[in-house]
Amino acid sequence: MKNEQCDDKKCPVHGHVTLKRESFTGIVIKKDANRSATIEWERQHYVKKYERYELRRSRIHVHNPACINAKIGDMVKVMKTRPLSKTKTFAIVTIVGDKK
Q1: What does each C-alpha distance from 91 to 40, 70, 87, 94 come to in angstroms?
Q2: For residue 80, which of 5, 19, 9, 17 has the smallest C-alpha distance?
Q3: What is the 3-class SS of the chain, one letter each residue?
Q4: Tens digit of pLDDT per residue, the chain (100 long)?
Q5: Domains of the chain (ranges plus CATH)?
Q6: Residue 46 contacts by C-beta under 8 Å, 6 or more apart in sequence?
Q7: What CA–CA distance (Å, rounded) separates 93 from 17?
Q8: pTM, entire model
């Protein structure tokens, strides 16, 4: 997390948004101009019929505060908040690192 101050009301660090327990770690694959981003993460799912694992991907829209300003390819940690818009209920909390 960067030490800059921001005046964003939806910022989980400097604003008045409470964080819930649910959290994910994913990679930023798309960044919008209006403080939004899309993150994606992969997981393995077992297919009983073939006795193998398959990769499944999940994508969610998140709030990208100005004080954090994650870029495409960054690995970030997101946590659930109250609904911030029609499609955003998660906010970026920290940047974990670059893409592995």
Answers
A1: 14, 11, 12, 9
A2: 19
A3: CCCCCCCCCCCCCCCCCCCCCCEEEEEEEEECCCCEEEEEEEEEEEECCCCEEEEEEEEEEEECCCCCCCCCCEEEEEEECCCCCCCCCEEEEEEEEECC
A4: 455 677 777 778 787 788 888 999 999 999 988 889 999 999 999 999 999 999 999 999 999 988 888 899 999 999 999 999 999 999 999 999 876 5
A5: 23-98 (2.40.50.1000)
A6: 52, 53
A7: 12
A8: 0.82
Tokens of 28: 């930023």
Structure tokens at 11: 């910022």
The residue type of 9 is: K
